[in-house]
Amino acid sequence: MHNLLHVYSFFLTFGPLKAGFQKISGIGESMEPEYIYEGGQCRPYPIQGTKNKAGRITFEKGHGYLNPFLSKNGFTAGSRISLPCSIIITDKNNKPLRIFAFDSGMLVSWEISELDALSGNVLIDKAVIEHSGIYELTKL
């Protein structure tokens, strides 16, 4: 029987740094439309409004050889992330299926997993980034 849990995988890039996460949530954006009223019409006509506040992406259970959230100010809430970031979703053969990106953001909260002297990876239990807007680069 085919295991549906292992059909897709994804990884995150911050400039040249690459990290893997078990779970990423918050990919998307929303907009609140504005309405205009045309003369003689009983119903309002929706038009594109302004985007809602910046989005938040939550990364959970991650690892990498370097901490991708490190900045010149260290690993601290409020650190600016100025490297271009992308989330690459691949199939089981590592063929890219979709790529989402954001250009800048800020680390708003983080937690690390318990420390293990036998592991050489940086473990990130949870990190939350507030970004200025996410967009899809390509849909293959």
Would you mind describing this structure in some detail?
The chain is mainly β and 140 residues long. The protein has one domain: Roll (Pnp Oxidase, Chain A). It is 0% helix and 51% strand. The protein is built from no helices and 11 strands. The protein has strands at 8-14, 17-25, 34-36, 45-47, 55-64, 80-81, 85-91, 96-102, 105-112, 122-131, 135-139. Strands 6-9-10-5-2-1-7-8-11 form a 9-stranded antiparallel beta sheet, with no helix packed on it. It is elongated, with a radius of gyration of 19 Å. Mean pLDDT is 77; it is low at 1-5.
Describe the structure using short key phrases.
two-stranded antiparallel sheet, mainly beta, disordered N terminus, 140 residues, nine-stranded antiparallel β-sheet, Pnp Oxidase, Chain A, 11 strands
Q: Please describe the biggest sheet, giving its number of strands, its sense, and whether it closes into a barrel.
A: 9 strands, antiparallel
Q: Radius of gyration, Cα only, in angstroms? A: 19 Å
Q: In the CATH hierarchy, what is the architecture at level 2?
A: Roll
Helix content: under 10%
- In quaternary terms, these chains amount to single chain
Q: So what's the overall shape? A: elongated
Give me the number of helical elements.
Answer: 0
Q: Write the CATH fold name.
A: Pnp Oxidase, Chain A
Order of helices and strands: EEEEEEEEEEE
Count of domain modules? 1
Instruction: Give the spatial strand order of the biggest sheet.
Output: 6-9-10-5-2-1-7-8-11
Low-confidence sequence ranges: 1-5
Provide the β-strand percentage band: over 45%
What is the straight-line distance between the termini?
27 Å
Secondary structural class: mainly beta
CATH class categorisation: Mainly Beta
Overall mean pLDDT: 77
